[in-house]
Amino acid sequence: MFKEILENVRKASPLIHNITNYVTVNDCANILLACGASPIMADDWEEVEEITSICGGLNINIGTLNQRIICSMILAGKKSNELDHPVILDPVGAGASKLRTETSGKLLDQVKLTVVRGNISEIRTLALGKGTTKGVDADIADRITEENIDNAVRFAKDFSGKIKAVVAITGAIDIVADSEKAYIIRNGHPMMSKITGTGCMLTAMTAAYLVANRGCSLEATAAATCAMGLCGELALDRLSKNDGNSTYRNYIIDEVFNLDGEKLEKGAKYEVR
Amino acid sequence: MFKEILENVRKASPLIHNITNYVTVNDCANILLACGASPIMADDWEEVEEITSICGGLNINIGTLNQRIICSMILAGKKSNELDHPVILDPVGAGASKLRTETSGKLLDQVKLTVVRGNISEIRTLALGKGTTKGVDADIADRITEENIDNAVRFAKDFSGKIKAVVAITGAIDIVADSEKAYIIRNGHPMMSKITGTGCMLTAMTAAYLVANRGCSLEATAAATCAMGLCGELALDRLSKNDGNSTYRNYIIDEVFNLDGEKLEKGAKYEVR
Amino acid sequence: MFKEILENVRKASPLIHNITNYVTVNDCANILLACGASPIMADDWEEVEEITSICGGLNINIGTLNQRIICSMILAGKKSNELDHPVILDPVGAGASKLRTETSGKLLDQVKLTVVRGNISEIRTLALGKGTTKGVDADIADRITEENIDNAVRFAKDFSGKIKAVVAITGAIDIVADSEKAYIIRNGHPMMSKITGTGCMLTAMTAAYLVANRGCSLEATAAATCAMGLCGELALDRLSKNDGNSTYRNYIIDEVFNLDGEKLEKGAKYEVR
């Protein structure tokens, strides 16, 4: 099934509106192009409703917040809801500051989200209204392991039921869940955490997968998550002795560019609970 | 002649003031360095006039607009006019929102531009005051083909005459025209559209070509356009099986870095009408 | 000793708060990850004090200024002082505009800095309260050569004594000095000036070195400066005929990723005066 999901993205070539941080924005644009979609970035309140109207979906990422773009996020989110476009939220650093925690909460309250994707600390912060985040990385105390995974799956399903959105928690093990069903995904490699933006890139790509696969948001999100992790594995195989995180970043985007449905179907490592 | 034009850039090493979007800004800086120029980015109204005064030319790119930088664009543009510096406008996404269309119009009205460079939908929007743009890509209905090229050349010349600036329309076929003469350029490769920022990079590089070649803006713009397309071709030849759009981006900038006058003269594919 | 300094960074994995420009921000994030640290970028006055509180150190870079983030720089700087965190300033383009010169002066006045790192023109501007800067590059008249190096060392020591911060002046020859002791560093390669952001990256990395090596700011800054230059040399060795500045940028970050204490100890080229 993941094969068709990926192919639908290449066929539909969805246009994605991104209101995102200025740290990883270039990588987000290039990964959208790599997976077959088109990016547009626009964050001013004067144009976000119009821009989102010509797009198929909206990617909101709070990595570098300020009041001007928070306003734009709400406006674009509401317009997307009105037009029934998928909306994905990446609550980067929720828990690290009141501004990030409260903005995430405001977006959850005022915008109907299709998917929320973050690390476990960020998602826990959203669920509890407060949290601890080690900057933009997950707090080590929160991390999902083989030992606590049943609890994590239950948490993800409960939170999904509460917010009526797919919940994607990524880390060493990824969980993608709606209220009834969870994908536990074991693609990826620890080296991915040595690049800035693998999370942001996955969120952007998921937006494209959602737009091209309406009606199966859970599966589309799981497929995108497997795809990103798999590309992290394939890119790692290409690294030679002198390569480091910068070359790795390029190779991951390259692998997304070259990924096809067959490779994804074969390489995806997941179980359903 | 293109040989001398390129060599003039390496000799003069012009300093270019960029007020540009945050998506492709790093690539714009690196391509300016690659072609022999120096970049400076500054977008606050408090400093843009001073910054533009120490530079040789100004690159205005509306890829991620907000009120603060629109004001800066106008101020810097007027100061550049006062100092007789070349000014180039990249109306990214004109037609996709009122803000972009109106800001482009305002810049056309209030700043004397040396060159306007965009895709056909953006340029058509500028000419008509409205338009349709598929995000930041050209609308397929607008695209220049061998069949409609005579019309497109006439349109480019007419619009150039009207705004008294060189008009550069880039796509599968590029047209660079003033009111009397048009270069039809067939360098480049479709894969270039799979990278974010090839247009932005070309605009930035054109600014450097203009500054180093005062008095022949048409030829300088045509040379820069051929150079970018040619580097896209040369970079493509370097790609191996596993490479994708991210490596391609790096190789294009690398080719600009390594391009010399001989290679450009030999590789440029154009006719004049 | 540089060996231990580098290893301390990898052991401590310090979290660095960056208020930096949008041109090279992605490279700064990736080089922090490459050297073993973690980056967080946050520039809104509503959150910078909280963010800086969860970090170990603060990197302030004025490469793309506006009023909003100047306010944030002051707030974050003062909070860092309160918490006794190291603070490093990169006065990008000081001398090129009143805004940059005055903002640097304001930061010097209101924030206790641990290190100031810039090119000779920028540092001279800070010392004199005015200056000439060729955009973001050093003015050629200012450049440090074997002939004027004694004067430059004296200048660096005097200025360090005056501002009570380590002064790092980088260029063809680097000087890292406190009021009594100066490291003269001869690592690096002229090709590094063909990439945007080598200075910004060094400043970000120095912040990590400072946090992991409290009590020896001079040595930590010298070690980071040698490390960056050495990685520029090692990356150059990897370049093949068709490579240019974009590949070079990737390789430099890769070398930082692969650098260990032994390599740094062996490759560092410096004398102490």
From TrEMBL, chains A, B, C:
UniProt keyword annotations, A-Z: ATP-binding, Kinase, Magnesium, Metal-binding, Nucleotide-binding, Thiamine biosynthesis, Transferase
Cofactor: Mg(2+)
InterPro entries per record: Hyethyz_kinase, Ribokinase-like
UniProt EC number: 2.7.1.50
Catalytic activity: 5-(2-hydroxyethyl)-4-methylthiazole + ATP = 4-methyl-5-(2-phosphooxyethyl)-thiazole + ADP + H(+)
Binding-site list for ATP: 117, 170
Biological pathway: Cofactor biosynthesis; thiamine diphosphate biosynthesis; 4-methyl-5-(2-phosphoethyl)-thiazole from 5-(2-hydroxyethyl)-4-methylthiazole: step 1/1
Enzyme category, top tier: transferase
Single GO term (MF): magnesium ion binding
Binding site for substrate: 41, 197
UniProt family annotation: Belongs to the Thz kinase family.
Alphabetized HAMAP family for the sequence: Thz_kinase (MF_00228)
The protein's name in its UniProt record: Hydroxyethylthiazole kinase
Annotated source species: Aminipila terrae
Recorded name of the encoding gene: thiM
